[in-house]
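Quick one:
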Amino acid sequence: MFKLKVFLIMLCLNLYSESLFSQAVTINYAPPSFPGGRVEFFKFIDDNIRYPALARENVITGEVVAILAIDSIGKVKNISYEGKQLVLIEEVKRILVKIPDLTPGYLNGEAIDTTFIQEFYFSMDAYRAKQNPEIYECIVYRVPMGSPGVNIAYQKARNLYDQGVEELQKANYQEAIDIFNNAERMGFNSVDLYFNRAVAYLKVGNLESSCINFKIAADKGDNEAEALYKKKCGK
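Output:
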């Protein structure tokens, strides 16, 4: 009799736990954004950033990561920097002190404190591209922005997406595509996923799939994706 009671209790607990996990959990997260959106943010960067003369003369290249702490009203409370080249870090500092207040991040409709991460790559090829746009053409992939770790399933999918971005940075385009596909299957459907996957497909020569992903990102309201869709896909 005792064993039967234990069995029934365990069965009820299992059924209850399964019912909990079977319920869909909706996480509506919007990252902090620049006034006017991504297009205006990249325009702000492009209008203000300079390749430092000292870095050009000594062929100094590298990456700077800026981590902005944004409060729930959109004010930048703190900025930390990571990088190996001081001259490049100082240039990023110079432009980010000019950044205006942002639209704060929102979680399920409520403004929250969050983090905005932006990576800056200084390369001589990119510098030459800017000086000679008729010769060089650059498509810059999107980098991940900070997100709140409030949901395990969401965070796993987000972490997987971030791995895909890392592979994209390393020019491992097919690996990036495979990872983006898995992240999408796990429920991560950020506009950046479709934009980055479109870029990856473009890099491996799959124009059809690239156009499909640019179109999805454009339909989600991304102006940059729409412009690239029209340019690359002739639409």
